[in-house]
Specification:
Blueprint lengths: L8 E5 L6 H9 L17 E7 L11 E7 L24 H14 L2 E7 L6 H12 L6 E6 L7 H4 L11 E2 L8 H11 L12 E7 L5 H9 L17 E7 L2 E7 L12 H15 L3 E7 L6 H12 L4 E6 L10 H11 L8 E4 L7 H15 L5 H14 L12 E8 L4 E6 L7 H14 L8 E6 L5 H5 L8 E3 L4
């Protein structure tokens, strides 16, 4: 169904708390991985694109690019005794899955950054990782880097890592940026086969939902390989994990997000960061998939996610997972009616039944994602928008007890993603919430935006330019209309 995007790959491996996520964020130039002193925060492989600029004095002028992967801490729970999450699950159950992800990343990688901590020196766990890399046959791809070298006085400590047999480590500080130039020059030499500027994925979509809804299982099924850890332990995914793949020549990027739960149930700072990453994933997506577990009642979590999706005007596919567990008690039609009542503001969103575990309904999800992106990117002519508006007014116009007649003087679409329609009217107050909902529904019926949110701005005639409206500026007297009104 899919194939990975071809780009040189670099994996960062190391024991817990050596600074892998900090170095990852430093190299990609933005905060992608969660950085927290709690061992085991990074569990899945988190990916980003790193740009490596030419060394000073080089004849080269164009940068090189590679796909950088942050992995979980190797041996995170080994030797530390039992550790439990807030649900009472033994986190040692994740050790094998985390280490399998590390091995998978190193096998795929063209270069493996083995990160050490210069301040603590080489430990028994570092030696175990070195043995694993040699056992896996990836020793020739290893570049050792010693982190937490904040100045020249710590460089000698970094050299202790040469005892592992992979050469003298490059001293860096992921926190301050010390030594980054030397590391960058080395990376430049080691990814000489870079094919130039990577193409951005044509469509980005986020999978959001409550914990244990099946998000990681779904993304693994879409990617066609065990890309993220799938576990029965609630809250396994902490970062938002980007997975790139191709379908019929189209590049897509799927974002697996942390499972969301009620704020009062957050156990620690890591859950705060996870929730923040999920919100950010929604913001940077073209389309979102709201995954619901048919075996559970719709909770406040799904309702709040629904409101967030409406607030951000995100085209949304509602994917019902695990319906096979309840189909002996409820029909598909009954469940659709139930969802319509529980998630009122998303009544326009397409709904599909899937089984992420069995791989059923995946083609339908992909087709819906592509279709919603197409709808949200469509731009209608001003003539057609005005024609449709006049037809709607003729069918039913705003009413006023005082006899004032509402008029729409001008209508135009000023933006896409989301489709944004501006109505210039004589009296904005006459357009009551009830009439605005009617108008929105009729616009969705008449224009090619039947399954995506529309941002509708109602404004009184003024000298404000359309360019200002395109930029999202508002003035007194303007009303921005959304589905939750």
């Amino acid at each position: 169904m899919s194939s990975p995007i071809s780009m040189p790959k670099i994996a960062i491996v190391g024991r817990p708390n050596v600074g892998k996520s900090s170095l990852f964020n430093r190299l990609v130039g933005r905060r992608v991985s969660i950085v927290d002193p709690t061992p085991g925060v990074t569990r899945d492989r988190v990916e980003g694109v790193v740009q490596v600029n030419p060394p000073e004095g080089s004849d080269e002028t164009e940068p090189r690019f590679a796909e950088l992967t942050d992995t979980g801490g190797y041996g995170v729970y080994v030797g530390e005794g039992a550790r439990f999450d807030d649900a009472g699950e033994d986190l040692a159950n994740l050790t094998d899955a985390i280490e399998a992800q590390i091995r998978f990343a190193t096998r795929e990688a063209d270069l493996v950054i083995f990160l050490l901590d210069a301040r603590t020196g080489v430990t028994a766990l570092d030696e175990r990782i070195a043995s694993m890399l040699r056992r896996e046959g990836t020793a020739d791809k290893v570049l050792t880097v010693a982190n937490k070298v904040d100045d020249d006085s710590w460089e000698a400590h970094a050299h202790d890592g040469a005892a592992l047999g992979f050469g003298v480590p490059i001293p860096v500080s992921a926190k301050s940026g010390f030594g980054r130039r030397s590391l960058s020059d080395t990376l430049w030499d080691r990814i000489a086969n870079s094919e130039g500027v990577p193409r951005d994925p044509s469509i980005q979509f986020a999978i959001v939902g409550a914990r244990n809804a099946g998000k990681s299982t779904l993304i693994n099924a879409l990617a066609g390989r065990p890309r993220v850890i799938v576990s029965e332990i609630a809250g396994t995914t902490r970062d938002s994990v980007d997975v790139r793949f191709e379908i019929e020549g189209r590049q897509l990027l799927a974002i697996d997000t942390a499972g969301v739960r009620k704020r009062k149930s957050w156990a620690d700072d890591v859950e705060f960061y996870s929730h923040s990453r999920a919100s950010d994933a929604i913001r940077r997506s073209n389309v979102c998939i709201l995954l619901v577990d048919a075996a559970k009642e719709i909770s406040q979590v799904e309702k709040k996610l629904s409101l967030e999706l409406q607030k951000q005007f995100k085209p949304t596919v509602i994917a019902v997972n695990k319906f096979d567990l309840v189909e002996d008690r409820v029909t598909a039609e009954q469940y659709v009616d139930y969802l319509t009542q529980e998630l009122r503001g998303l009544s326009y969103a397409p709904l599909t039944f899937i089984s992420a575990k069995e791989g059923r309904g995946l083609d339908d999800i992909v087709k819906l994602v592509l279709n919603l992106e197409k709808q949200a990117s469509h731009r209608e002519t001003t003539g057609q928008v005005n024609k449709v508006i006049q037809e709607i007014l003729a069918e039913r116009g705003p009413s006023s007890k005082l006899g004032t007649k509402a008029k729409i003087l001008y209508a135009t679409q000023v933006g896409i993603n989301p489709p944004t329609v501006v109505l210039v009217v004589n009296k904005p107050d006459l357009f009551t919430p009830g009439y605005r909902r009617f108008l929105m529904n009729r616009l969705r019926d008449q224009l090619p935006f039947s399954e995506v949110p529309i941002r509708m701005v109602i404004t009184e005639r003024s000298r404000m330019s359309l360019s200002a409206l395109k930029g999202g500026e508002h003035r007194a007297g303007e009303q921005s209309v959304d589905e939750s009104d």
